[in-house]
Inverse folding.
C-alpha cells in the first residue's frame, strides 16, 4: 500500500477533468497538493475547495506547459515555496483531430510539447530528490490510444504510446530504488477532450472520478499500469493480439470514426 497522509502531490493539468479529480482524491486521502495548469481562476477555485473540504494545503502554479522551460519554471516555484514533491502526477495533455494534412503543424508541436516533453521534463526535475530520499512516486496519464494507432488522431496516439513506454521503462529502472511508477490508460472520459477537438462523442463515457478511483486502486496494489474497464482492456490489449496489426488498425479507425463525429451532426450516444 502507498501512504498518502501528510505528503505532497503535484498534479499537472489540474484545473479540470482527470487532473482535478486526482487533486480531490489525493486531498481526501490526506495529501497536500500543488495544482499546475494555465487557468488561474479555475486553480484558485479548486485550491479553495480542497482547503475548505479536506483541510489540506493547496498551492497553485500557473504555467503553460507547451512553452519551453515550463517544467523548470514550475520546479523553481516549488523550490521557492520550500515544498517537497512526494507524488508527481503527469496528467496534462490534449489531442488534435482530423486528416493529418489539415492540422496546424504548430498546434501539433504544442501537443507534443505538453504530452511528451513536459512529462519528461517534470520527471527529470523531481526524480533526483526522490532517489536521494529513497522514496517517491510518479503517475503518468496515458490513454487507450497508447496501445493502438488512431487515424485522424495520429500524433495524439503516438504521444500516448510514448507515455506508456516511458512509464514502463522507468518502472523497471526504479522499482527496487524506492520510486513506484504507474501509468493510467483511460478510455473515453467526461473531460474537455471532445470540446478541444470539436467533436461529439457517440459513446457512453466514464466519469473522471471513476477513472481516478480505479487508477489509484491499481497504483496502491503496486501495478505498473492499468486500463480501467474490462471492455477497454479487451479492445486495446487483448483484441490486437488476435488479428494482424494492419487489420486491427483499420478496424479501430472505423470504430473511432463512428464514435467521434464533427460537432453538430446530432450523434446518438451508444451505451
Amino acid at each position: 500500500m502507498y501512504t498518502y497522509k501528510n505528503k505532497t502531490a503535484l498534479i499537472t493539468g489540474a484545473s479540470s477533468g482527470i487532473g482535478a479529480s486526482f487533486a480531490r482524491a489525493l486531498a481526501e486521502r490526506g495529501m497536500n497538493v500543488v495544482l499546475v495548469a494555465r487557468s488561474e481562476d479555475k486553480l484558485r477555485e479548486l485550491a479553495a475547495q480542497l482547503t475548505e473540504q479536506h483541510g489540506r494545503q493547496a498551492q497553485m502554479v500557473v504555467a503553460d506547459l507547451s512553452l519551453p522551460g515550463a517544467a523548470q519554471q514550475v520546479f523553481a516555484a516549488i523550490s521557492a515555496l520550500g515544498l517537497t514533491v512526494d507524488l508527481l502526477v503527469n496528467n496534462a495533455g490534449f489531442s488534435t483531430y482530423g486528416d493529418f494534412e489539415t492540422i496546424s503543424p504548430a498546434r501539433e508541436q504544442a501537443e507534443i510539447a505538453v504530452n511528451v516533453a513536459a512529462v519528461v521534463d517534470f520527471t527529470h526535475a523531481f526524480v533526483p530528490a526522490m532517489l536521494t530520499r529513497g522514496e517517491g512516486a510518479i503517475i503518468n496519464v496515458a490513454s487507450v490510444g497508447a496501445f493502438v494507432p488512431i487515424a485522424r488522431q495520429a500524433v495524439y496516439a503516438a504521444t500516448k504510446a510514448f507515455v506508456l513506454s516511458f512509464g514502463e521503462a522507468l518502472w523497471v529502472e526504479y522499482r527496487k530504488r524506492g520510486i513506484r511508477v504507474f501509468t493510467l490508460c483511460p478510455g473515453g472520459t467526461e473531460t474537455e477532450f471532445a470540446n478541444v477537438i470539436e467533436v461529439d462523442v457517440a459513446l457512453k463515457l466514464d466519469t473522471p472520478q471513476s477513472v481516478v478511483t480505479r487508477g489509484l486502486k491499481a497504483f496502491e496494489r503496486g501495478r505498473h499500469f492499468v486500463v480501467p474497464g474490462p471492455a477497454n482492456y479487451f479492445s486495446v490489449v487483448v483484441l490486437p493480439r488476435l488479428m494482424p496489426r494492419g487489420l486491427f488498425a483499420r478496424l479501430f479507425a472505423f470504430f473511432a470514426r463512428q464514435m467521434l463525429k464533427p460537432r453538430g451532426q446530432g450523434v446518438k450516444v451508444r451505451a
In short: The two ends are 34 Å apart (CA to CA). The first strand starts at residue 8 and ends at 12. Strands lie at 8-12, 32-37, 58-62, 87-90, 136-141, 179-184, 199-201, 225-226, 260-262.
